[in-house]
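Practice record 12: protein with adenosine-5'-diphosphate.
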Amino acid sequence: MPGDPLEGQEVLQQVAHAPLPGENAPAASNPAFRTYFASTPQDESAAQQRAEEAQKLLAAIVASSDDAIISKTLDGIITSWNNGATRLFGYSAQEAIGQHITLIVPRELWPQEDEILARLRRGIHIDHFETSRVAKDGHLLDISLSISPIRGEDGTIIGAATIARDITHQKAMARQLREREEQERFLTEVSKVLTSTLDYQETLANIARLIVPRLADWFAVDLLDAEGHFQLIVLEHQNPEQVEWARALRERFPIDYEASVGLPQVARSGRSELYPEITDEMLVAAARSEEELAIARQIGYSSLMLVPLVARGKTIGVVTFVATESGKKYNARDLALAEELGRHAGVALDNARLYKEAQQARDQLEIILQGVADGIIVYDKGSRIIYANEAAARMTGYASVENLQRARPLEPTRRFEITDEEGRPFPLDQLTHKRVLAGERKAQAIIGYTQKAGGRPERWSHVTSSPVYDERGEILFVITITHDITERVLAERRKDEFISMASHELKTPVTSLKGFTYVLQRRLRNQSDAQVLHYLERMDAQLDKLTRLVSDLLDLSRMQVGKLDLQRAPVDLDALIAETVENLQATTLTHRITIKGATRAQVFGDEDRLAQVFINLLTNAIKYSPSANRVEVHLAREQNCAIVRVQDFGIGIDEAHQEQIFERFYQVTDPEEKTYPGLGIGLHISKTIVERHQGRIEVHSRKGQGATFSVFLPIGERSGKSDHQAERTG
Ligand code: ADP
């Protein structure tokens, strides 16, 4: 009975005969099952019984199958319909049987169904054919069909048995997998494309190319500036007209920064917004005027996503993805993809921006460095030049910065005779960048250059080198700044020459004046003219001062050319101090000089030169304490050192000047205080003399609180040179 799906004998017969496709026919594919039915029965009743058994079994299989098993005539009329079919398509057997098979075929697939029927008529099996069907409730099912022709007793084809399996789930899984793979491919491409350049404009163009049209019909990137305002930096659409509309909208209707949704909110919260469907009502609700609404309608929004651009944990802008004519409706998956893209794009844009800024800063710096008058050279750890400016090239006699940069280490210095301040050859390992590479934190030197070939006149430079360290504290490079001081050095040299000449010229007349005064004094003493004698004594005292000034200047000149001679012999320091103090006490009525303590030391040195030091210190002590009435000399010894301290109670010296007062011609000039006579060379000479005795001189003072100058001299030590051998200052 073809009307009954379970009892339909022909169907079952055919199903039993037809090779059931794979796993859809567990019984048929079971070898034991096949052997049983294939073996020749013993007698007829047994054969009959076995046929019935087989029918029942097959009926049971069909009934219990999870798959839909349907049979139909060659005209497409459904003749059997199992429970699986009811479960799958929702129609009961009663509803389905007798209906045309197009009951469950989507309209657009009807031609396909005709095709299937035609093939069946020709006896062709159809295996695992994937198509779709409609269920009773109208929803589409993905189906895998296996269709076999059903033959009548006479062997002619009378219908078809269809086994349908729901593969909607597998299909969905496969689609998801494909989508995921595609997304991954896309994201790989995103990261590859976005890391391919540091150029800002190129990065923007890349972002645009990745997004349009794949993810959006048009998109916009708005970056937040320092004030938190949006800067629309890119707007991209396949259709330029649309870009104009979007731009017009933005220009005419500025962003409402207070709005609780949209760009400002995404920027504030760092959370994306997804509008799967943009309806006209939404446009109406959002528009602030008729005009805005008209433009928004022109754009033809279909769906919208706003995604934050994130870099270094901060939202730096917002990307707007808009679907328009494609009619695409964004879903959560699209949003996830857009967000991922936002992260990549944020980092890429941030990097490109930083790079652009760094490059701009470098360009600016380069302009400044190339413009400065000082020579700037940067060396690497191997003394190779990695940067030089034009002044450096000029100073080292190279035609261009490139030529200098190509030079081998030390080559620039080898082109010159280089000397120190005293004109001695300058050791190359003492060049300032070498000293820094050897560990000094800052190295300075005054260097004279005379070009070996080309005979350029000598030049003088003040050279300073300092290191740049890496994060591990190791030297990365050394920056050397060369300041040309040729003019200064030459001017000083002229001044020295003048002083030398002037002091020599002055010495002769002063000496003869001194001689004539002496003769006059003797004559007048005999005539006992007290008044004239008094004037003469004052003249003599002034002449002494003049003599001292002239001899100081002479000493200075000698020191400059390294010709300050020392006549060394053992000196009783206490006696020398006592004598010096006594002599000076005779010249002052204002101050009382007292000696405290004793050194009980003999030093090996030039008595006159040492006396000169103490005279200088005591004269200064008196000169710079006009309101005081005493000066103290403290004598002491410490281990192998004799210490002479000259303490006054005068104007004192501000700390800022304490180092410089030992430089030649240095005088503290304070507009508030009265000026004191002097040339600013006494302390310089004193320091040189003390150092020539292997000693040192120090000052302790505070402004307004007096000063103490301490001289430290080694006791009794011979310097190894003979007493009368002339030494030269260094
Ligand atoms: P000067 O001929 O100017 O005294 P010096 O070389 O002896 O030259 O001293 C240098 C400078 O040091 C002086 O001009 C003065 O400003 C300062 N100075 C030296 N000694 C004293 C002192 N005892 N108290 C205060 N200032 C002093």
